[in-house]
Amino acid sequence: MSVSPASKVSVIIPTLNRPDFLLRTLRYYADAKFSGRILVGDSSGPEHVARVRAFLRDVPSLDVTYAECPGLNDRNTLLELANRVETPYAVFQGDDDVFLPGALAQCVECLDGKPEFASARGRAWLFTVDANGAYGRLGLGGPYRLPAPTAETPLARLQQLLGHYAVTLFSVHRSAVWRAMWRDVDRIRDRAFGAEILPCTRSAVYGRCATLEVAYLLRQVHPARYHLPGKTEWRGSPGWDADFAFVCSALADEVREASGGLETPGGEDIAAMFERTYLARRKPGVAAHGASRAGARGLRHGVGAMLERWPAAGATLRRLQSGLRLARTRSALRGEPAVRRELDLFVSVASRKAAA
Questions:
Q1: Quick check: helix, strand or coil at residue 67?
Q2: Whole-number Cα distances in Å, 144 to 25, 229, 243, 329
Q3: Interhelix angle for 311-333 vs 337-355, to 10°?
Q4: Per-residue pLDDT of the chain (356 residues; tens, 9 = 90+)
Q5: Which residues partner with 37 through β-bridges?
């Protein structure tokens, strides 16, 4: 009997006190008959954990490893889940996002046939829910940029990613690479470095990423999404200098190892690369202007913040935009009937509670 390509991938989902989002995701994968493995690291309180366990008892066909992680932060939770990966491939997912299983399978098939690539990904799209929660009427938005470092050498790929930074965790990775990406993140105090920047940059160092022209990931936009802090606020946080030095030293070591000793940067060289690329592009944030945290968040979110302040105007604008966005998304999905079916299924799952 043939093995489904999707069964070779583990979807990694950390979560904290957001059972509605997590249950929506699990319900969708169950309805889509996803054959891969799902590793959930749940740091939630007991009442939320009980809801999830009750759901899992009703869907034994879904291959879920449910790890209770009380008191663990996101770095420790992700390290714990990385160490539990047993499939050939792994990928990160937010509890409020979903992958289209057919596209995950295509990424697995790509990596099976192209050993020169360390990771693969399709195209990502944004969506909203009218109630800003897990359930309601969906609005399909525009594309969400995913990186695909393709330079020939580890140092060149690192510079390529830092110069136009985006999150590499949403790409399907070979499991050995995945585990290496999360090594020692529990030693890092800063959330941005430990849960995102170090594993993302390691991904680029360890190998090239293939891009498939297929709709692949749906990412929800809502007020509770995590955003990295502004640069000035971030650099002034406790322990930043020590964590930055640790990250740069680790990346220098890994560039030397991945290049077989042909590239030999020091930690200070990696730090200088960060300064002229990634850090130079980051916005100053709250400390630069003495603004309040809420004000800085409004600046970072731009139009989104204005729409939250004037909901009537926001609703009107969304109605005007929805037709164009839906047409654009359907155009992108044209010729992919299986993917369209998976998209329609997610719309149905997300609307189900509101309709009940």
A1: strand
A2: 19, 20, 29, 12
A3: 150
A4: 567 899 999 999 999 999 999 999 999 999 999 999 999 999 999 999 999 999 999 999 999 999 999 999 999 999 999 999 999 999 999 999 999 999 999 999 999 999 999 999 999 999 999 888 999 988 888 899 999 999 999 999 999 999 999 999 999 999 999 999 999 999 999 999 999 999 999 999 999 999 999 999 999 998 888 788 889 999 999 999 999 999 999 999 999 999 999 999 999 999 999 999 999 998 786 433 233 333 333 323 334 443 454 455 455 445 445 444 554 555 555 556 777 788 889 989 998 764 44
A5: 10, 63
CA dist 214 and 115 (Å) reads 20
Nearby residues of 31 by Cβ (< 8 Å), 6 or more positions away: 345, 348, 349
Residue 129's closest CA among 119, 139, 116? Answer: 139
Measured distance CA(209)–CA(213) in Å, rounded: 13
* 29: CB partners within 8 A, 6+ apart: 11, 38, 62, 98, 101
Q: Is 302 exposed, middle or buried (0-12, 13-18, 19+ CB in 10 A)?
A: exposed
Which residues of 221-308 form beta strands (DSSP E)? none
Element (H, E) at 352: helix 337-355
Number of H helices, E strands in the chain: 17, 9
Q: In whole angstroms, what is the distance from residue 218 CA to residue 139 CA?
A: 11
C-alpha span between 9 and 121 (Å, rounded):
13
| Residues 6 or more apart whose Cβ sits within 8 Å of residue 5 | 104, 105, 106, 108, 109, 112
Cα(100)–Cα(153) distance, rounded to whole angstroms? 31
Identity at 52, one-letter amino acid code: V
* Beta-strand pair 208-220/98-99: antiparallel
Hey, which bits of 190-347 come out as E strands?
A: 208-220
Give the span between the Cα atoms of 110 and 10, in whole angstroms: 16
**Cβ contact 80:186 at 8 Å:** no
Say if strands 138-144 and 98-99 run parallel, antiparallel, or are unpaired. unpaired
Full-model pTM:
0.86
